[in-house]
Amino acid sequence: MDPRTNLIDTETTHLLLCLCTFVSNSEGKKLSIQNVFITLLKEMKYRRIFKSLLSLETDMELVQLFIKYDPTMVNSKYISKFLKSNDSKNLNLVY
């Protein structure tokens, strides 16, 4: 792997985890990565912060970043249940 790519991936992961800690602290409770992800889907203010600091254009890129970090989220019944109970139009996601 190219050292530059490795450095970018490491920095992106570090920033993602720092932002997850920020969301946990802001919400006043310890949140799992799945709960942070759901909070991001619910709260546009957090999505804007994440996208800005991670230099992402769309919400879909943010979703892909979370899945790349933790692929088990795809199989999470908790996330599936949340997505099924909330119409994606109500989440105001930008594709």
Order of helices and strands: HHHHH
Number of helices: 5
Mean pLDDT: 88
Percentage of β-strand residues: under 5%
Fraction in helix: 55-70%
| Biggest beta sheet attributes | none
The total strand number stands at 0
Textual characterization of the structure:
Helix 2 packs across helix 3 (44-53). The protein has one domain. Helix content is 68%, strand content 0%. 14% of the residues are buried. By secondary structure, it is mostly helical. The chain contains 5 helices and no strands. The radius of gyration is 13 Å and the shape is globular. The protein has helices spanning 3-27, 33-42, 44-53, 59-69, 77-85.
Offer a concise description of the structure:
The protein is mainly alpha-helical and 95 residues long. It has 5 helices and no strands.
Topology:
Elements: H1 3-27, H2 33-42, H3 44-53, H4 59-69, H5 77-85
Helix pairs in contact: 2-3
